[in-house]
Write a structure and sequence with these properties.
Number of strands: 15
CATH architecture: 5-stranded Propeller
Structural class: alpha/beta
Shape: globular
CATH topology: L-arginine/glycine Amidinotransferase, Chain A
Distance between the termini: 42 Å
CATH superfamily: Succinylarginine dihydrolase
Number of domains: 1
Helix content: 25-40%
CATH class: Alpha Beta
Radius of gyration: 21 Å
Strand order of the largest sheet: 2-1-15
């Protein structure tokens, strides 16, 4: 039976803004308070989805969240009508209003961790929504994320959904941004690679000193248990605390993997050689031939990797067995990174082509191509069981482009977030979107 890796890209929401909310994310903080363009951001994302569809990849779309999150503001003591809640928050606690308006759900690499049916004990595809408890503006996402994923992957014969882990620091979970799967073929048993920044209970693991380590070992282990993964199919590895302190807030900022290949920076991990040997041995036991490409620090410094998001790229398998690397425009703009990529292609390894995409609106807020997509490996039967409304087609692309142009503003500043009309615009747009994507009622304003 044929199997696929389907990329479900996050559709940028109508309140896309540069709130500078993510401590430890250099781009997010450095572009704080700039005017954003939600329309341009959403259209840039849709263009990437269409381009991958046109290249023959199965491409899906994941809906954004309702923002501002009035219910979250009410839970913090702001009362009255929706408009009054927004007005009070703007007057008394503007940072909380900004957080409640964040469009960070666009980066669906943080939405959940996904294990394919070939790896799980019950033979179903498993989803665990990420609690994202390190940052308040992201911690409020997982209830809606779970409902949206449940509407996309509803068939309980093929799909299993788990609630987010306890929302405490010991189980900080950032989803697929710290998870990669290696396999010979997508439909065969593989090795799931969980990367953590710290341990909550074991002091033997060093921790970063400047920026928080968002993913814990204990969270990764819990997700592996929930998904019914075997010890033979799992490798846990620690991210280098020194690179976290240089702005590598997720593993997908310093490494990307697909199939049998791991593309990573020399300084990405602790105990690198031991980790690579474990990956090679476990994948070999499952019929695979693990390979790695380590980018030397003397060719690409960690600072260049963070600024260009070289590793926050999409590594895609093509029909001829070669791999395609999708990178942001910032890679071409960085002379050292671009020189490295040209040398990589000239070397004739598994990565045979690099394609560049303009994702400036997302990049300025700290998310590149890899942040914008959630990978789900599916066989033909499982793909047929996915809600067809969320699979990209030329018609859906045209419909969503028209929807964005109809509903989205072309400029948004912090002061605009206090406008109650923005909430009405968002709800009107999302109500229409759920009909386009055939999701049913998934947003609080549709349910309550």
């Amino acid at each position: 039976m044929k199997s696929f890796e389907v990329n479900f890209d996050g559709l940028v929401g109508p309140t896309h803004n540069y709130g500078g909310l993510s401590f430890g994310n250099v781009a997010s903080q450095s572009n704080s308070q700039q005017a954003s363009n939600p329309r341009e951001a959403a259209l840039q994302g849709l263009e990437k989805m269409k381009a991958l569809m046109d290249m023959g990849f199965v491409q899906g779309v994941l809906a954004p969240q309702e923002r501002p999150d009035v219910a979250a503001l009410r839970s913090l003591g702001f009362a009255g009508t929706d408009a009054q809640v927004i007005e009070r928050a703007a007057k008394e606690a503007m940072p909380l209003l900004v957080a409640s308006c964040s469009a960070s759900s666009m980066w669906v690499a943080n939405a959940a961790t996904v294990s394919p049916s070939a790896d799980t004990a019950d033979g179903r595809v498993h989803f665990t929504a990420a609690n994202l408890n390190c940052k308040y503006h992201r911690s409020i996402e997982h209830p809606t994320t779970s409902r949206v994923l449940g509407a996309m992957f509803a068939d309980q014969q093929h799909f299993a959904h788990h609630a987010a882990l306890p929302a405490v620091a010991q189980f900080g979970d950032e989803g697929a941004a710290n998870h990669t799967r290696f396999c010979r073929e997508y439909g065969e048993a593989g090795v799931e690679f969980f990367v953590f920044g710290r341990s909550a209970f074991d002091s033997r693991y060093p921790a970063p000193q400047k920026y928080p380590a968002r993913q814990t070992l204990e969270a990764s282990q819990a997700v592996a248990r929930l998904h019914g993964l075997s010890e033979a199919g799992v490798v846990f590895a620690q991210q280098n605390p020194a690179v976290i302190d240089q702005g590598v807030f997720h593993n997908d900022v310093i490494a990307v993997g697909n199939g049998e290949l791991l593309f990573h920076h020399q300084d990405a991990f602790l105990n690198t050689e031991q980790m690579l040997a474990e990956l090679h041995g476990k994948l070999a036991a499952r019929g695979g031939n693990f390979q790695s490409i380590s980018v030397p620090r003397d060719q690409v410094a960690v600072e260049d990797a963070v600024r260009s998001y070289l590793f926050n790229s999409q590594l895609l398998s093509r029909a001829d067995g070669s791999m395609l690397l999708i990178v942001p425009e910032e890679c071409r703009a960085n002379p050292r990174v671009w020189q490295y990529l040209q040398g990589l292609l000239a070397a004739g390894g598994p990565i045979r082509e690099v394609k560049v995409f303009d994702l400036k609106q997302s990049m300025q807020n700290g998310g590149g191509p890899a942040c914008l997509r959630l990978r789900v490996a599916l066989n033909e039967t499982e793909l047929a069981a996915v809600n067809p409304g969320v699979i990209m087609t030329p018609s859906l692309y045209d419909t969503l482009t028209a929807w964005v142009n109809k509903h989205y503003r072309d400029a948004l500043r912090e002061s605009d977030l206090a406008d109650p009309q923005l909430l009405l615009e968002c709800r009107t747009a999302l109500d229409e979107l759920t009909q386009i994507l055939k999701l049913g009622a998934v947003y609080p304003f549709q349910i309550n």
